[in-house]
């Protein structure tokens, strides 16, 4: 058997280099073929696709119907998904500004915003940022400041709010602003300085709705702020942000949701004199007098909700029955929600009845939601609620799945 002559090291290295070169060449040829195939496939998809043959107005509506309310960027989620199907779908997506007027980003995404927002054309924008503010993002928001309609900011610290306030002169069209806190790596919420919040609010002269969520406010450095068009102000759970009421005046306010109303609440109402229609008060702390709180509520209120997360609401109701009759004189709806641990004695219901009876002709809807066994009611209590119902009041007492009141009223008064 004759063996091939042995190759020298130099010859072997040369052969390996040649083979590597040939492999690289074939790989490049393969890549070119893949690109041509992909381009031809996109053209074929466009020819076969019935959507591509529809008028743009119709195909755009079909695409819009595929969107979710939260438009988070993702290659496999509309609208970016439409850019990866075929040329026709790409053209439709890029020719439909309404597909790009909303975006939600987690962590800073300046590059994404730079490519996304121009596709919205001149449409008004809705932007939500979770830990998404930095100097680059603030600069982009400055470029689109006149288009911004709805803005949600959820941050760990207030430095980002100051960054935005320093970058933007004004948000003249912004009518809905949500400011939320986020926990740090230890699960704690860092307090926001009131000055940082006010700096941002001063950029929103036409704000209509303002919401705070999971945000603690500390300190007050002075100054006043009038939000003349604000109609809705809401403080979500874990918020003591009612301190921001101290510098605020809102003469057009119609809806207020507040946690643990403090002295700032009464001063705010007196200063603003708003045409308040709906008031929701949530309480997580005890030691308050509900009557003292509600006596400052303007008579324009027609809808009142009282939500307690402790047993303190039950003990505070005695103050409510002593309210002057001209307080809450236009109230049409009263909703009270108490925690499961609240133990309501018959005397509590008598206090409730003394509040409701003088207003029986104005209050049309009353709900008392709680989850404990109802007490044994006496004839006076039963007759009092019967008169309210006979006069047209729609009433519910008990858990949301069961109304105790009809059973009470069916019993004779001697039981």
Automatic annotation (TrEMBL):
The residues forming a coiled coil are 16-43
Annotated keywords: Coiled coil
Superkingdom, according to UniProt? Eukaryota
UniProt name for this protein: F-box domain-containing protein
């Amino acid at each position: 058997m004759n063996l091939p002559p042995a190759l020298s090291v130099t010859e072997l290295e040369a052969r390996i280099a040649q083979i590597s070169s040939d492999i690289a060449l074939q790989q490049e040829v393969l890549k070119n073929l893949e690109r041509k195939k992909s381009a031809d496939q996109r053209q074929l998809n466009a020819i076969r696709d019935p959507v591509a043959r529809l008028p743009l107005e119709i195909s755009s509506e079909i695409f819009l119907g595929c969107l979710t309310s939260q438009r988070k960027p993702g290659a496999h989620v509309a609208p970016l998904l439409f850019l990866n199907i075929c040329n026709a779908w790409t053209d439709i997506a890029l020719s439909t500004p309404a597909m790009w007027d909303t975006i939600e980003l987690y962590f800073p995404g300046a590059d994404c915003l730079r490519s996304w927002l121009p596709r919205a054309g001149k449409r008004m924008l809705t932007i939500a940022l979770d830990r998404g503010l930095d100097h680059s993002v603030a600069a982009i928001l400055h470029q689109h400041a006149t288009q911004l309609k709805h803005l949600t900011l959820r941050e760990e610290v207030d430095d980002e709010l100051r960054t935005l306030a320093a970058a933007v002169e004004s948000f003249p069209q912004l009518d809905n602003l949500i400011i939320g806190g986020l926990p740090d790596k230890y699960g704690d919420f860092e307090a926001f300085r009131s000055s940082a919040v006010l700096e941002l609010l001063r950029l929103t002269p036409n704000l209509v709705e303002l919401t705070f969520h999971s945000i603690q406010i500390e300190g007050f450095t002075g100054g006043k702020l009038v939000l003349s068009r604000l109609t809705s102000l809401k403080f979500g759970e874990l918020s003591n942000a009612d301190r921001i009421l101290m510098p605020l005046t809102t003469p057009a306010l119609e809806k207020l949701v507040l946690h643990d109303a403090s002295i700032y609440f009464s001063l705010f109402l007196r200063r603003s004199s708003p045409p308040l229609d709906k008031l929701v008060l949530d309480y997580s702390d005890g030691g308050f007098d509900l009557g003292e709180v509600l006596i400052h509520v303007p008579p324009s209120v027609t809808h009142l909700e009282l939500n307690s997360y402790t047993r303190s609401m039950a003990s505070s109701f005695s103050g409510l029955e002593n309210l002057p009759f001209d307080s809450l004189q236009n109230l049409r709806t009263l909703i009270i929600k108490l925690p499961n641990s609240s133990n309501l004695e018959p005397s509590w219901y008598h206090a409730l009845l003394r509040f409701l009876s003088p207003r029986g002709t104005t209050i049309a809807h009353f709900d008392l939601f709680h989850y404990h066994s109802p007490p044994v009611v006496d004839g006076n209590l039963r007759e009092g609620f019967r008169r309210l119902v006979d006069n047209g009041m729609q009433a519910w007492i008990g858990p949301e799945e069961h109304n105790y009141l009809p059973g009470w009223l069916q019993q004779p008064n001697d039981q």
